[in-house]
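Please check both lines for our workbook:

___
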Amino acid sequence: MVYVFLSGYADKYRANVLKTVGLPSGLINDYSYKVGSPDGNVNEDSLANALEVPANAEVLFVMIDRYAPGGYTYFPIRTGRLAEPMRVADGRLRLKVKLGQFATGVDNTRFAQSIAEHLAGMNYPQLVSNDPENRQDGQYVLVASPLASESPRLGDEGWIEVVKGLARLQAFRPDDNRGVVFLSAEVWRADEDPSGPLSPTIVDMSRAEYELHAGARYKLHLRYYYPSDVRGRSCQARIALGPSLIALQEPVVSIGANQRLEEWAFAVADYPEASLSRIDLAVEDDPNAAAMTRTLLRPALSFAARLRPSPVRRWLAGVAITAYALGQVLEGLYAHPTVSGDKVWFGAGVVLSIFAVVALLALIGKKPG
């Protein structure tokens, strides 16, 4: 198992923590850690072990509370699997992780003790010189066996428990000058498929994309948690769609205090002009909010979408083409009917041909736009 530690030390790291808990299961997120001394968080020993780990190895993301009384403490937030082997580029260890289930249901004190015992001697992140701002605090990517005790409960329903835990940390705690928004999104079919949200498809081991079908309707399930004690503080999520994706409602979802699930509908054009598109979500300040309440630490989420022909339309087109071909055969065989039976077959051929042409015209329809 690969233990990946996150601390939210700076805003760019906090933003990636928000992506880690915001992206749907099955999508891939990137992580990188500086290699070597004096200010790196992966030393030569840790690097050698990391580079031997194969793709699909299990990953556990562990959040560090740098400012906890008495020193660092730790709690799990999510699992994942390596989409490809780890590599070094530009002096940094780079990981692509296919995100998995949320990790919940542990006692944080006992989990921290388990981490300390299990990773003893591996220089895992710890408070140095009583200074939580010290970035030379240990190794942030470690390879070890799974925890034998105090292992977290896994599931897709643990999101709210995880983000409420993050909101209690100093790195994410809202105050008078900063609001923090936790946002997650999933893609569902419009008919609320009981099997659950769509699962992305892995492409070339390094990226994941949703497969959406021409002419079909979908919904984004947007969950947010916006802890705020500042009166009048609000924000909004803006949704931008790529080529051949059509918004079926206004592209802005208002976000108020506390937590909520919103549904937002969109569709794929009947005849997409592009084979690849995307969905981008960005949380932004409410333009109507008071200036003092308009500072946000917020996620930005993006999904790639591969646009496929509609399977139903392809089947119907096949039926129509087959009917037309059969109709032409019948017309050809009985082009000069002399008996009543021949006339019947010739008429059937004409009817089939007309039906097929009408069906194909209906399938082609008018291009949107």
Notes: The helical segments are 11-22, 44-50, 108-118, 159-167, 311-333, 340-364.
